[in-house]
Amino acid sequence: MSIYVVGHKIPDSDSICGAIALAYLKNQIGEPAIATRLGEISPETQFILDTFGVEAPEFKESYAGEQVYIVDHSEVTQAPDDIAQATIVGIVDHHKLGDLTTATPLECWIRPVGCSNTVIKMMYDFHGVEIPKAIAGIMMCAILSDTVVFKSPTCTTADIRCVEALADIAGVEDFHGLGMEMFKVKSAVEGTPIRDLVMRDFKDFNMNGKLVGIGQLEVVDLSVFDAIKHELEADIASLKEEGGRHSVMLLLTDIMKEGSELLVVSDDVAVVERAYGTATENGRVWLDGVLSRKKQVVPPLQDAFA
After folding, report:
1. Coiled coil: which residue ranges (predicted)?
2. Does the reported pTM lie above 0.90?
């Protein structure tokens, strides 16, 4: 019986590349595994897969009765809808420990680093398995994406060393340049449906019993949103009502200015203002130095809801 290796809903590059890399590792150590995904491939992730000639994992929604290895999260809200009917055999992650629970023991590789693929690289080293060139390439790109080419406060020495080692395996001399190419792909928003943009990197969180959705769009110049910002605000308001959410927030992150404009709709905007110590104006606020949803946005918001 094969293990299904899957990341979170609305998968980013870390979830997709991590599922591929971990499934390959598991197969090499005699544990049959299949990489899967819970959503569509983003433009950035497709660019990465195309660059290294790697096929996307198969799309699979239902996992009832299956063995599942979770990648890049440990949250019920981000897992398959029927995860309670599956057997979770492992988790590899770099976020806070979420609310997934199991009835049997499982393998856990959770490290405070910038990317799940950094942890997976550690797993390859632990098992003494050689990483194929193409898989090394997509793992490297996932780390560059999650760490915003080492600009994110989540980035650690381990992430940088893993990128250097993976770049050597993949034969990539200028990984900084490749990282910037990836973010240029992310910045190409023209012609993309507004809902697709809002949901491109969107996660739901349970915060003290309140459902909060937080999306993030990382670009090299925030001016790409000037003509559509009002549409983005209207859509997150619709998304809030459709999902019965307490709040929906969208981070418009400028990786060059190293900060984010936060768009927010909420049943109680004071909670959001308390979280970040600054007032919003017409549902907008600039958060200087904020690049990481995981480290700089979610923790203070959870504290405010608590």
Report:
1. none
2. no
CA distances to 10, 133, 172, 191 from 44, in Å: 13, 19, 18, 16
Give the HSE-up count for residue 5: Cα atoms under 13 Å, Cβ half-sphere: 27
* Residues 217, 119 share a domain: no
Mean pLDDT of the chain: 96
For residue 112, give the CATH number of its domain: 3.90.1640.10
**Residue 76 vs residues 97, 98, 215, 288: alpha-carbon distances, Å:** 11, 8, 17, 31
**Nearest CA among 164, 175, 6 for reference residue 89:** 6
Strands 33-37 and 58-59: parallel
Same domain, 134 and 263: no
Q: Which of 184, 204, 237 is the last residue of a domain?
A: 184
What total of structural domains would you count in the chain?
2
Residue 201 lies in a domain: yes
Contact 145, 44 (CB under 8 A): yes
- Report pLDDT digits (tens) over 87-124: 999 999 999 999 999 999 999 999 999 999 999 999 99
Question: Are residues 229 and 263 in contact, defined by beta-carbon separation less than 8 angstroms?
Answer: yes
pLDDT of res. 227:
93
Residue 29 lies in a domain: yes
Q: Which residues of 154-166 are buried (b: 16+ CB within 10 A; e: fewer)?
A: bbbebbeebbebb
pLDDT band at 274 (very low <50, low <70, confident <90, very high): very high
The H-assigned helical ranges of the chain are 13-28, 43-52, 116-127, 133-146, 157-170, 175-187, 194-198, 229-243, 269-276, 298-305
Q: Residue 289's domain is classified under what CATH number?
A: 3.10.310.20
Tokens of 149: 């080419």
Rounded Cα distance, 21 and 92, in Å: 12
Q: Answer with the one of 164, 184, 204 that is the final residue of a domain.
A: 184
Where in the sequence is the domain holding 96, given as residue range(s)? Answer: 3-184
Q: Does residue 212 sit in the same domain as residue 252?
A: yes
